[in-house]
Amino acid sequence: MDRKVTTLSEIPKWHYSMLNDTVRNTAFQTAIADRVTATDRVVDIGTGTGLLSILAARAGARSVDAFEAHPDMAGVAARTIAASGVADRIVLHRTMSINVSMLRDDRRDFLLTEIFDCALIGEGILPALRHARAALLSDDYRSIPQAATLHGALLSAPRIRQLNEVSRACGVDVSGLNHLQTKGHFPVRLATWPHALVSDAQALLHLDMLEEPPAQAGWNVAFTAEADAPVDGLVAWFDMDLGAGRHITTHPAAESHWMQAFVPFPEPVAVRRGERVDVRLAVVDDVALTAVPDRAFTTDLRQLDTHRSLTLHQNDLVPTRPVLEASAS
Ligand SMILES: C[S@@+](CC[C@H](N)C(=O)[O-])C[C@H]1O[C@@H](n2cnc3c(N)ncnc32)[C@H](O)[C@@H]1O
Questions:
Q1: pTM for this one?
Q2: Residue 214: its pLDDT value, please?
Q3: 70/80 Cα distance (integer angstroms)
């Protein structure tokens, strides 16, 4: 007889930590209670368990169209909504929002969505927003969130780089695996790894939920290096404005189920204190953020004699300030 001891879940594990993130939940709940009114017809893109749709209906929304593409999650949403006491005002669409269009006169006037990953774009908000503006929403729609900004700083963190890069193991060259590495950003809990911020934070990307999402192929962001250091890429986090004075931040010093995003450079580069570092950012396939230094760096990593004495800090981040110290200088 077959005995099935365990099964791997088909849904991403972060659904649990996300729903246990009371900071996130409360921010959305209060923004919805403050901003959704009895005349609003709401579209909830990526409803998951149905949570935000239920909160909108409980806040008095006239109707809610909830979209959930994952079949198992849609099943959970159906049951959660059925038990919520407000099921009569929620219609669940078990499909991607981009598969549905509404007649112009019937379009909804309030966008509610929480499909943001650690770098905002990784769960597909760009195509979902483009489509919703063209096919689901009235011209004067309102939105929760209203806007979000991704911030980032130069990061020295060889151990984080090693989460996505190999060379040798037990004397064996295993670098062939790098062919399959993640090319864009990926999540890291910055405080758990030795690291040093090598610059102040700059805005990397701004998303206004009432505007057409940016379509540019690439753009430059300039940083000023604050130490001699090998730089592995950018660390990024976002600040989100839900309206009504409600905000969410995923800054490394904040408590959140969202991790930070590491955006690796193709290879580490050596920078000098005071040097301007232009980084070319790009969105690939509408979901991945990539970062490449915009010019060849003259300093060779091996010439950087101070890099071994960098203090790689853990757990002592100060908001918006670099934490790097080059003790040799
Ligand atoms: C981060 S979860 C958020 C769940 C819920 N909004 C909440 O705040 O609790 C995102 C969910 O959206 C779904 N999803 C993402 N993009 C979607 C889209 N364009 N249309 C329908 N479902 C989508 C995913 O399957 C996932 O279950």
A1: 0.90
A2: 81
A3: 15
Copy the structure tokens of residue 195: 């690291």
Which domains occur in the chain, in start order? 14-114 (3.40.50.150), 148-312 (2.70.160.11)
**231 neighbors 260 (Cβ within 8 angstroms):** no
Model pLDDT for residues 246-274, shown as the tens digit of each residue: 999 999 999 999 999 999 999 999 999 99
**Any catalytic annotation for residue 275?**
no
Q: Is 155 in the pocket of ligand 1 (CB under 6 A)?
A: no
Whether ligand 1 lies within 6 angstroms of the CB of 145 is answered as no
**Residues above pLDDT 70, as percent of the chain:** 87
d(CA 314, CA 312): 7
Catalytic residue, candidates 123, 165, 275, 325? 123
Q: Is the CB of 121 under 6 A from ligand 1?
A: no
Mutate to test the pocket of ligand 1, among 95, 115, 143 (most ligand atoms within 8 A of CB): 115
